[in-house]
User: What shape does this take?
Amino acid sequence: MAGIIDAKAIEVIYERAKAEFPSLLRIRAEQVLKWGEDGNKSLFLLLAVLGEEFGELCKAVLEGVNNSLRAHDARVEALQTAAVAIAIAERMTLLVEGGRSETITP
Assistant: This one.
């Protein structure tokens, strides 16, 4: 059972995450350049991309257990996975704020 997280733990988590923000924002910006700024990728496509990125992350973690170069690759894959998750959240926000739904078709 999870306990209550104290303020010090939250501060540590925040500082660690904040250190990753510049890299995460750079990767997200690269995605916007690649996919377009209007967030018009379907949720179906974004989920497929998320699955692909997560698979690459899993592979890099497994290969990086005893290999520092692959461990670095795993960090990059984790950031790319997080950036795609943010793209999905952005897409969902556009749909919710617009009062729309999206039919997911391949």
